Amino acid sequence: MSKATILLIDDEAQMLTLLADILEVRGYSVIAADNGVDGYNLAVSKRPDVIIMDLAMPDMDGGQVAQQIRETPQTEHIPIIFLTGLLSKDIEANNKHMVGGNIMFAKPCDFDDLTNQIETILAVPAH
């Protein structure tokens, strides 16, 4: 049985490559976009099981992409995990990855914690 498909959206090529490699080794199918517009389009066309994206991106930031995803009926249910350099490790630890109702990880993230969060999300039945 194949694991879930994860869409990665990040304008940093090294981060995309690192995350894709780690997730693929752990059995996930990975698709990636290096900007918010392409990421949104991939979300609509591929309908991944989980989206992991950077918050700070040029042109269309992660918050804008997430808003569009939530406003689109085909994608509104897809869980989103934000990765950001704007969040301190202390805030992340104190809030257990939930900030403003969103799942957030500070960069660089602990990949075991990230994988555990993905598994938790995937274990919850879709609405």
SSE topology sketch:
Elements: E1 5-9, H1 13-25, E2 29-33, H2 36-46, E3 50-54, H3 62-71, E4 80-84, H4 89-95, E5 98-99, E6 102-106, H5 111-123
Parallel strand pairs: 1-2, 1-3, 3-4, 4-6
Antiparallel strand pairs: 5-6
Helix pairs in contact: 2-3
Helix percent reads 40-55%
What summary fits the major beta sheet? 6 strands, mixed
CATH architecture grouping? 3-Layer(aba) Sandwich
The number of distinct structural domains comes to 1
Distance between the termini: 22 Å
Order of helices and strands: EHEHEHEHEEH
Beta-strand level of the residues, as a percent range? 15-25%
Instruction: Please give the radius of gyration in angstroms.
Output: 13 Å
Please tally the helical runs, counting DSSP H or I stretches of 4 or more residues: 5
Q: Which consecutive residue ranges, at least 5 long each, have pLDDT under 50?
A: none
- Structure class: alpha/beta
Biggest sheet, strands in spatial order?
A: 2-1-3-4-6-5
CATH level-1 class: Alpha Beta
| Mean pLDDT rating | 86
CATH superfamily: Response regulator
Large-scale geometry? globular
